[in-house]
Predict the 3D structure of the following.
Amino acid sequence: MPELPEVETIIRGLEEGVRGRTFLDAWTDSKTLFKNISFEGLREKIKGKKIKGIRRRGKNILFDLSDSSVLLIHQKITGHLLLGKWQKQGKEWASKTKGALSLDPANRFLRVIFFLSGGLDMALSDLRKFAKIELWEGEDLEEYFKSFGPEPLTIAFEEFKKLFSSKKGKIKQILMDQRFIVGIGNIYASEILWEAKISPFRDAGKIKQEELKRIYSAIKKILKKAIKLQGDSFSDFRTISGQKGRYQNFAKVYQKEGEQCPECGGKIKRIKQGGRSSFFCPSCQK
Ligand SMILES: [Zn+2]
């Protein structure tokens, strides 16, 4: 699933590509992706609206429109936004640009296309169709986001420490809880805890201040590094131009079961934890 670095990569691409453009029309063959409004309703409402800004809250991509409404897209498990130009060929949409957009299968599960002014299309490719598209009034959206945790890239250590007071549960699952802190999922929770040398099975409430500092620094270090590498494309994620991110080439434990820990040479283990795989080094992470 795209996590903060992948969503941030998309946001930066959109920032250059679509800010200031106007929605002309939209197409979908997957109406179930539209959650708080029907596809037809959304299509009518966004027509003629200009994109004033693009921002991120957790893993949500937000488009601020000229009438103060906000288009929200959550890419969920296998979704990613693409910028290009597509044309109908029989029943299929084909990319007019050669290269990754037309060749990489991950970019060919087009479920929604937004046609923008200036001859650019913004498409959602989503193999498993779990993505979510909503239209909000600005004020209601701010209310909805009140139940979300703070942003990991901007939180100060004192505030981060406070989150842990009387917090129950295992540290890995807590890091992935969007009400606790946003943007971290299975890839980066595993990577962060390896970097901090903390076992994913530790009780969050029993972690010492010195260890919390290590987790805090690791969060910033790993997320920033992943943004620089344009996210992780071990799975379906692609950048806005359909290219793979490169974090998977630098991952230390995620998807490395049975391989050598880069720190101690021991074997990396995978154990199911809350229904998700946790990757870790049993000798480095205590
Ligand atoms: Zn190790």
